[in-house]
User: Fold this.
Amino acid sequence: MKLSLGPLQYLWSRQETYDFYDAMASLPIDVIYLGETVCSKRRNLKTGDWLDLAQHLAEQGKQVVLSTLTLIEAESELKTMRRLCGQDDFLVEANDMAAVQLLSERGVPFVTGPFINIYNARSLAFLSRLGLQRWVMPVELSRESLRCILEAPEIKALEQPLETEVFSYGRLPLAFSARCFTARAHKLSKDNCEFVCGDYPQGLQLDSQEQQTVFTLNGIQTQSGDVYNLSPEVADMKKLSIDILRLSPQHDAMTDVIQCFRDAIEGQPTAAVLAAAHCNGYWHSEAGMGEVKPPL
Assistant:
């Protein structure tokens, strides 16, 4: 079982981003996803910068995957997507069906991100025939749903091996909108947002009237209020033959998160202490914001 570092979901400064990935290069992460998946206005790193960073990390022994934008709204965004899908040096994670089409037409293998709605074995088998090499399960699916998909006759009959990756740590990416909620919270328009999302390196908390954190606002993206954490489920996830566990980049304590999951994969007790506010309801077929405690 491998560990992956998903694409950066937040707007960090150029230097913070480079410093973060410099640190990740020496940590026990097998796969690193790079690229802007949330908002095309975020240009602290341009496409060429991401490609240069990808080359640097590949030279450090990491498998690098380039991630495409999730919500395509303009020709300029299509141009960037075509450039990523047209290069031959790195595998591409498609987060939009337009990217799936471009990659399948080229006849190159690709990854689908959690935003591609694969909810059954027939869809997964169809995409596999188009060149899908690895899929990231949609975050709202449960353990039981995943088991049913992987054990379906259509999947067992596939000629090419198919890797399964599961989002296992971080605030869940729930929805995208043409509106920018972080800008709206500051009474700014999306066109004149002043990049205010950069003031929230782990998103802007949205609390209910009862002072419960319900969601996290990240520009045009809505995330879960609490951090999704499947580290207690790693032993069971091995039994499902899951290939890769995805950890979403966090501004703080990322080293501890990686070590916690690495220890769990190796069956070792972990000394790392992770953030207290966790959720795991989707995995257990419960409300997503819930936390199902392991039996004592």
In short: The chain has one domain: 2-170+227-271. The CA atoms of residues 261 and 292 lie 18 Å apart. The chain has a mean pLDDT of 94.
